[in-house]
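Follow-up to my earlier ticket, as requested here are the two runs.
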Amino acid sequence: MNKVMTRAAAQHRPGTRPPGRRDPRRPGGTPPRNPAPGPTATAPPPRPRPTDLFADRLLAVLSGRRPVHWMLRHTVGRAYDDLARLAEAGTLRTRGTQPVVRDIGYFVPRPGAVEAFARIGAGDQLRALAFRLEQGPDLRWRCTAVELGGPRGPRGQDR
């Protein structure tokens, strides 16, 4: 079988460059060695808000990625008991898609206290997580209340 070239192109000869290429090592040229320092190079990254940190921590416990006692020093009072009860129920444990925090909102009722909510999504399922943070005398934030909402069952099964 004979191959036929349909284009009249110059055949490649060893030791020659393709037409239009100037640098045999890099087709696009070389990047500058010392890029100009930008605003991100000198400024430290912004610190995450306590609401963001606690939403991630609570989600890790409620989804089963962390044990409940991991939050022991970050909770106060009944919040730990409520968290243990919610984690035991396993409502955020899913097969396949890991739950993620989609959105966070908060309200500051007084200085040193924050009431927050987070929308938790896992696939097409959307749940609500509400929690309260209070700042102690040592200026550390601790969770004082936690609730998990979602689709309600039939009437009469609510607490």
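Run two:
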Amino acid sequence: MNKVMNRTSQRRPGTRPPGRRDTRRPGGAAPRTPTTSGAVTAPRPTDLFADRLLAVLSGQRPVHWMLRHTAGRAYDELAHLAERGPLRARGTRPVVRDIGYYVPREGAIEAFARIGAGDQLRAMAFRLEQGPDLRWRCTAVELGGPREPRTADED
């Protein structure tokens, strides 16, 4: 079905449409302006990925939600970690308390995050690498605690 919009009266070029005549709104109110002084900056990739990883590891999001944000073995590592549900807390939702990072080279970031849930504190480490398309992708993720040995078929 093709929908056609017809106008009963034609406007002349260069004229404005008639103003809104709404008696419920006060006239002459100043437009809202942000109260913050300074430019709005985009969040750092470390902040975004810490929140994304936390959402998956706490069970708030499915693992496949991170599929396009990971590269290499990171998706398998994330799926293995999420399977155990290490950050699922009863009663208290985990939050990112602090983030730190190190830039070993241009286009790579190694980051850590402190994850708090109630009185528990956990550590999460991850590596981000910038691809040729300038998008950041997670290439490794680990949680604090003992590491499980890798088998020969995982390599």
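The only thing I checked on run two: The first helix runs from residue 45 to 57. Let me know what else you need.
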